[in-house]
Design brief:
Radius of gyration: 57 Å
Largest sheet: 6 strands, antiparallel
Structural class: alpha+beta
Mean pLDDT: 82
Shape: elongated
Strand content: 15-25%
Helix content: 40-55%
Length: 673
């Protein structure tokens, strides 16, 4: 409860006292973890060595016992072989088998086979067994070839279907030649040879097993695995080595996927391998329980020490709280410096350093206030618009000249007047502004700004990053804003006058040729079709000669209005000089161009002017062509359209002539057509 009260007043990880406590606890936890980890690793090694020694001892005992059992059975069969003698008399052999009925305590059955491999007698007698041919079986060939006692590979009984092996000794003639054999049948299900293995206890999941060197399982606690093949070399390398005659210990995988301690020994008379297996997890279980108990003891001890440590740390850090209180009083102006009654050297040094820094701060603060007052005076008196922004991009100050220029109030939020930047300019301006903040490059941009009174301004903005020369620290940006609206308007007027005819307001030759070049470049890049119409006015000279230039200018203005009205909004109409006109039709096919040309011819023929009671009219001789792949420049297109216009004049004027580069003859469209 005493510890809970301070923890409620402040978060433990936010105080020095709490952090020291957490650091001690973390150090304690780390040391205990390292100690327990080392104990665990050392304990695992000791447990493994102890269990390996136990398994090795048990495996040797089991191998010796099974070896003894096999040798006793060999000896019993050799005595039976001596009782039978060299005869093949079935009656005599059966009699001897009955006389040695005690052998059935070691075997499930006894058989005698002659040199031809035929069973001549068995005991107990089973119908169909006498007379069986064994010449094709592996144990017959082994006995005849080695003339030594032999234990067969496991097989299933023909009658019982039970897995079994045959323990056999050869019968020899006086000359030492093969004369058949005497064999005892051992059932792998109930044979006494393996009774000892069933009693082996290696914890809850440990067990013993026997396999042949050829790779068949003779004994396993799981009866379904008897007579099954052992896993391959990659699954259990230790067992594979043991099948080759190796005796020793290893760690390998069991059939259920667990890792286990393993020990192998050889049963040489039968060419068998006995193996003992104990899962690693089972072997380490007592050690894991001990380590877990030890861990909880350490945890309980550590928890019981936390209140004491908390109290001790609070007492040691009490001078620090006094220092904190005095620093707060200095900040509020209640005192000029700090003074601690403590012999802790570190805190005395902190107090001394703080007092020195506070003196320097007061001096710098006085200088800073003077400079700020001077800077405010300069900015407020500056006739140009100026602003200051921090490194987050937020504008923190705008001088009166800029506020008046933009028509915004000093307390207006930045998000409000940013929306007054023209939509076409705001995205590019933001991208360049962010780039300047990231790289430190100057921000130079011209953009449009819509004042609250709906007046559109053109502003020229130049902002520069301010960096301290000593350490390269960036303070922010300082910018200058100029109103260039009048200059931009004058430039726009000059650009318009440079490319337009002052009489008709249409494009002049210079403006028309620039748009021709742009359309021709689009055609070369994207094959966008465009058409060109060139024409001059038929019968225009009499209007100037008889009515004067004023009447001629009036006719030209009317024609310009009609032509501009008849074409599309995307088309470009030009007066190239005198009475020569041109029309550029972007994205226009030849068929569309011919319809537009005919419409122009018809509309212009309806225009008239009157002077001294006389009415004057003009007609058009129009040459039509389109951009083509053979054109190397707009000069080729202009020449082709001009030739079409002259051809129209030759055919009596007031007509439309289509002139294409692949046509041998120009095609004429006149008013009579």
């Amino acid at each position: 409860m005493r510890l809970a009260a301070p923890l409620k007043r402040m978060h433990i990880s936010r105080s020095l006292r709490g952090r020291l406590l957490l650091g001690l606890a973390a150090t304690w936890f780390l040391v205990v973890t390292l100690l327990l980890g080392m104990s665990w690793q050392l304990g695992k090694t000791m447990v493994q060595e102890t269990n390996m020694s136990h398994l090795r001892y048990e495996a040797t005992l089991l191998a010796d016992e099974v070896t003894q059992q096999i040798e006793l059975r060999f000896q019993a069969l050799e005595r039976l072989r001596g009782s039978i003698g060299a005869t093949n008399d079935e009656g005599w052999i059966s009699y001897q088998l009955q006389q040695n009925d005690s052998l059935l305590a070691w075997f499930e059955g006894i058989v005698v086979v002659n040199r031809e491999g035929t069973v001549v007698a068995d005991w107990p007698a089973i119908v169909g067994r006498v007379g069986l041919d064994t010449t094709e079986l592996e144990y017959f060939h082994m006995l005849r070839g080695t003339l030594r006692p032999y234990v067969s590979e496991p097989f299933e009984g023909r009658a019982s279907g039970v897995p079994m092996v045959l323990v056999s000794v050869p019968r020899l003639t006086e000359q030492g030649e093969f004369d058949g054999f005497v064999a005892g049948i051992l059932s792998l299900d109930s044979g006494g040879v393996f009774s000892r293995l069933a009693k082996v206890r290696l914890g809850e999941n440990g067990y013993a097993g026997i396999a042949t060197a050829s790779g068949k399982i003779l004994y396993h606690p799981d009866r379904s695995l008897i007579n099954a093949p052992v896993p391959d070399k990659s699954f259990n390398p230790g067992l594979d080595l043991a099948r080759d005659g190796w005796e020793g210990d290893s760690i390998g995988q069991l059939l259920n996927g667990q890792m286990a301690l393993q020990s192998y020994a050889q049963i040489w008379p039968a060419n068998w391998v006995v193996g003992l297996y104990m899962p690693v997890q089972q072997a380490q279980l007592p050690l894991a329980g001990f380590i877990q108990q030890l861990w909880w003891l350490w945890v309980l001890f550590a928890l019981s020490m936390l209140p004491l440590l908390w109290w001790m740390l609070g007492r040691e850090l009490s001078p620090l709280r006094h220092l904190e209180k005095q620093i707060g009083e200095v900040g509020l102006g209640y005192r000029e410096n700090v003074s601690l009654a403590t012999n802790m050297q570190e805190l005395q040094q902190v107090a001394s350093t703080f007092n020195r820094v506070e003196e320097e701060r007061q001096l710098l603060l006085g200088n800073l206030q003077e400079r700020e007052a001077f800077l405010d005076s300069v900015l407020n008196a500056a006739p140009q618009g100026m602003f200051v922004a921090n490194m987050n991009g937020d504008i923190t100050y705008m001088n009166p000249a800029l506020l008046e220029m933009l028509g915004v109030s000093a307390d207006a939020p930045m998000e409000t007047w940013l929306t007054q930047i023209h939509n076409d300019d705001i995205v590019g301006a933001k991208d360049l502004w962010l780039h300047s903040l990231r790289t430190g490059n100057d921000f130079v941009r011209q953009l449009r700004f819509l004042r609250s009174d709906k007046e559109l301004l053109w502003l020229d903005i130049h902002a520069r990053v301010v960096t301290l020369s000593q350490d390269g620290h960036t303070l922010g940006l300082v910018g200058v804003v100029k109103d260039i609206t009048e200059r931009r308007e004058q430039e726009a007027i000059q650009r318009w006058e440079a490319e337009h005819d002052p009489l008709t307001g249409l494009l002049n030759r210079r403006g028309f040729e620039r748009r021709l070049e742009e359309a021709f470049a689009d055609f070369q890049k994207t094959s966008t079709p465009s058409a060109l119409l060139l024409f001059d006015l038929d019968h225009f000279k009499p209007i100037n000669d008889e009515g004067g230039h004023a009447l001629g200018d009036e006719m030209l203005r009317r024609i310009a209005q009609v032509v501009a009205w008849e074409v599309r909004r995307s088309d470009h109409v030009a007066r190239q000089g005198g009475d020569e006109f041109g029309v550029l039709l972007p994205s226009c096919t030849l068929a569309q161009a011919m319809r537009i040309a005919e419409s122009l011819r018809q509309s212009v023929s309806e225009i008239s002017v009157t002077h001294a009671g006389k009415e004057y009219i003009v007609t058009l001789s129009i040459g039509v062509t389109t951009f083509d792949e053979v054109d190397s420049s707009v000069v080729d297109v202009l020449a082709r359209a001009d030739a079409g216009s002259y051809k129209a004049k030759e055919h009596g004027r007031d007509g439309v002539v289509v002139n294409m580069p692949h046509d041998d003859v120009m095609e004429l469209f006149d008013s009579q057509k």
